[in-house]
Amino acid sequence: MQTTKRPAGRKRKKANHRYFLLIVLALLIISGCAAQGARRVPADRFNYNAAIAQSTREQMLLNIVRGRYLEVPVFLTVSSVLTQYEYDRSIGVGGFFGFGGDSTTVIGGTTDVITGDANLRFSERPTITYLPVEGQKFSAHLLSDIPADLIFASAQAGWPLDVFMRIGITRLGALENMSFGEVLATETEDTKTAFAHDLQKMKRFERMIQLIFMLSDREIIEVQQVEENGKAERYLFIAEKVPGELRPLLDELKKLIGLSDRKRFRITDRVTNLRDDEISIQTRSVMAMMEFMARGVEVPIEHLEQGHVIDYGLQDSEGEMAEGLIPFRMISSKSRPENVFAAVRHQGYWYYIDHSDITSKRALSLIIVLFRLTAPTPAGAAPILTLPTG
User: Taking the C-alpha atoms of 172, 177, 182 and 183 in order, what is their torsion angle to the nearest 10 degrees?
Assistant: First the structure.
């Protein structure tokens, strides 16, 4: 039986062709990775942005919960995010060529051998720097009342003025909002009476806000800025002509906040020695606003019964918060909630804001913006803690 052998030249050509294809493929892969650094910038930039935004919400929520448990808030700010990308790529080609006819000692039936290899390695090493936000200057900003002009500027910018007034104003004219300070933790008749009185003040304040919005929408009242002696002053103006159906609403508002029969009132932050053409507006500090919002935290019923927190009388016998009392609500749960706006864990429970709770979401966004405006990170502070996360 006669066997026909394939020519050695054809075998050698086929082997070289395979190695050539492998080398070309390796070159294509490496060249394709050459621009990966630039391509990662959009994705990584928005990923870090989203992570910082989420952690900012959760940090503020956690500090509000801490306030409910009479703990001191602690803030950390992300000072810098540095990310290093490293691409290591290499390609090698080698071979040896033999001259001889001993086909039993060769590879693939030929004495000519070509080898190739390609290596690709990618690594990312982010370094995130955190700064504790503290110090005398920061504390002074955090504890100082926000300027009343900030409320009017926020209204012009489209911020939720109703939430701002409910959270950020402690007095308008003769009418006081619900207090935010701590009261005696003992269950005495005096504290219960104080809680009931506080709720009544809040309900009257809510009614005042409703009247202000109804009358301002009908152009019966308006706040204007007037230049006097080179200084900008804000005034509350009342329209000269008021439709008959709106007179009872205007009279109710004037009675609530103690206005005289004048048509123009200068806005001031003083409470004592007010003239009959002045109206007082007192605001809260960012810290006071956080303490006020902390009353809207729905704590577990056992924490109320065990005296871990002050019982303000805002939760029912099942531990649920009555809706509408506080313009901010955080729900507590033993298990981790799913698909929520933001959630934090404290004292063995999860506290969260539901996605459908628009009022609480607006209130949280507002307090974060005010925190950034009134209590900025001190400039020039040195990094305290740097953690390589890779």
Answer: 120
Q: Residue 113 falls within a domain, yes or no?
A: yes
Which residue from 48, 50, 56 is spatially nearest to 77, judged by alpha carbons?
Answer: 56
For the stretch 313-354, pLDDT in tens is 778 777 777 666 788 999 999 999 988 999 999 999 999 999
pTM value?
0.74
C-alpha distances in angstroms, 101 versus 11, 108, 111, 137, 277?
A: 14, 13, 8, 89, 116
- Collapsing DSSP states into helix, strand and coil, what is residue 367? helix
Residue 1 in any domain: the answer is: yes
Tokens of residue 13, six digits:
């050509």
Phi and psi dihedrals of 30, rounded to 5? -65, -45
Q: Residue 127 — φ and ψ, nearest 5°? A: -125, 120
Tokens of 246: 């709106």
Longest dimension (CA), the chain: 127
Res. 129 pLDDT band, cuts 50 70 90: confident
The answer to whether residue 116 is domain-embedded is yes
Please indicate, yes or no, if residue 65 is contained in any of the structural domains.
no
Beta pairing partners, 83? 126
| Domain hosting residue 93, numbered range | 1-34+82-132
| pLDDT score for 107 | 47
Number of domains in the chain: 1
Q: Which tokens in the block code for residue 51?
A: 């992570």
Quick one: CA dihedral 259, 264, 269, 270, positive or negative?
negative
Judge whether 337 and 350 are in contact, CB under 8 Å. Answer: yes
